[in-house]
Design goal:
Distance between the termini: 95 Å
Radius of gyration: 44 Å
Number of helices: 14
CATH superfamily of the largest domain: Response regulator
Helix content: 40-55%
CATH topology of the largest domain: Rossmann fold
Largest sheet: 6 strands, antiparallel
């Protein structure tokens, strides 16, 4: 298969010189060549611009032209770029200092006119093309690497969690803005120091061993899920964190990425919910409300004291396996999956189908007890009528503000002959 001809631009003001160069190139190699020519710098620059989409394979540049010298031509062709659009070989005298200046200016090679041969000229052209191709590829790789690095840093900076990247020795090499806000340091204060500076001194020695274990088995993992880890701010204050560790593999080494999340609010909210639930249950117990809770997923149940008394069940500290069918639409057999042996199936007035299913299926299993509670709408309406008519009064033993729930609870435990103990919020 015949290769495409090399496209060569010869910039030389002497017509005979251009002819000699063409002859030497053609005789110095079996490769095919296609020539373009220019005798002035301005004309050559115009040709370079016109061929910007399909640059010349090589440019032969005479050092001294009528309007521009080689240094000026190199500056104009490069136009502020590291590399010209095509490799350039400059034809000059034997001054090596000038040659070095030309190479720094963007030329790939230079040849002294007095010692050019067909072989040396074609070899210089081919070598210049090969070096230029390698440099172009290297520049592209550098640009791609720089863009990738900038993208990585941008993603790191935009992460909502603190991101700390350290080398295997624990030395911090990169942090994001969230890290600075969380720990109170500046970026320069963190880069280059050991990551152990971000944890209390009492845990630093153990952390070094944990870090070495992670390096030995670098697997993505989350730390602080069960037992929160403690981090240390610049001002000396400590706070609970959750950390996700990830290895970053490099060609010859590894970095460790730590995503750090402050879970102070999560713990505070969990405690607030727990306290709120405790206060609610205390209020329910003090108010004498019959309340039953059933979790159909776990099968765990809870009865208040009055609910247990209402259904004739002993109250203890353990959770009861009770299914309380408030709507009356379930039946015993369909509830056995979440009813432990000896548990209780409690239902209000069931539907005919549910009642029949319960009656028919219960003898097949002795795993639980069935209790039916039949509500009466007429009774409730009569109670409402009597209350509105002033013939029925609610008896109150005592009233406590909600802040004194503990005193109210002790009042109930001390024994109340009649009436209710009321909490007022």
């Amino acid at each position: 298969m015949t290769s495409n001809p090399r496209r060569i631009l010869i910039i030389e003001d002497d017509p005979d010189g251009r002819a000699d160069l063409r002859k030497m190139i053609l005789s110095g190699s079996d490769r095919r060549y296609e020539f373009s020519e220019a005798e002035r710098g301005a004309t050559a620059l115009k040709q370079v611009q016109e061929n910007a989409n399909t640059p010349f394979d090589c440019i032969l540049l005479e050092y001294q032209l009528p309007d521009l010298d080689a240094q000026e031509m190199l500056a104009a062709i490069c136009d502020g770029r590291d590399l010209p659009p095509s490799p350039i070989v400059v034809l000059t005298g034997s001054d090596r200092e000038v040659g070095r200046e030309l190479l720094r200016g963007g030329a790939q090679d230079y040849l002294g006119k007095g010692w050019i041969t067909p072989e040396s000229l074609t070899r210089a052209i081919e070598n210049a093309i090969d070096r230029f191709a390698m440099l172009t590829k290297q520049r592209k790789n550098e640009v791609a690497l720089r863009e990738s690095d900038e993208k990585f840093r941008s993603l790191l900076e935009s992460a909502p969690d603190a991101m700390v990247i350290a080398d295997p020795s624990g030395q911090i090499v990169l942090v994001n803005a969230a890290t600075l806000r969380m720990f109170g340091y500046t970026r320069s204060e963190l880069i280059g120091v050991r990551v152990e500076m971000l944890i209390p001194s009492s845990a630093r020695e153990r952390h070094v061993h944990l870090r070495m274990d992670f390096i030995a088995k670098p697997l993505t993992r989350t730390m602080g899920k069960g037992q929160p880890l403690i981090a240390l701010r610049k001002d000396g204050s400590e706070f609970p964190v959750e950390i996700a560790l990830s290895p970053i593999a490099l060609e010859s080494s590894m970095l460790i990425s730590s995503s750090i999340r402050d879970i102070s609010d999560r713990i505070t909210n969990a405690k607030a919910i727990e306290e709120s639930e405790s206060r609610l249950m205390l209020g329910v117990e003090v108010a004498g409300l019959a309340l039953a809770e059933v979790d159909y997923t776990t099968g765990l149940n809870h009865l208040t004291t009055d609910a247990a008394r209402l259904f004739g069940l002993a109250k203890s500290d353990e959770r009861w396996d009770i299914i309380f069918d408030v709507s009356g639409k379930a039946h015993y057999m369909g509830s056995r999956a979440v009813l432990k042996e000896g548990g209780h199936f409690i239902s209000t007035e069931p539907s005919i189908k549910g009642l029949l299913m319960t009656i028919l299926t219960w003898p097949l299993s002795k795993s639980g007890q069935i209790m039916l509670a039949v509500p009466s709408g007429d009774d409730l309406r009569e109670l409402i009528r009597l209350y509105e008519a002033g013939k029925l009064k609610v008896t109150i033993d005592s009233t406590f503000p909600f802040e004194q729930a503990a005193q109210a609870h002790r009042r109930v435990e001390s024994g109340v002959d009649h009436g209710k103990v009321v909490l007022v919020n």
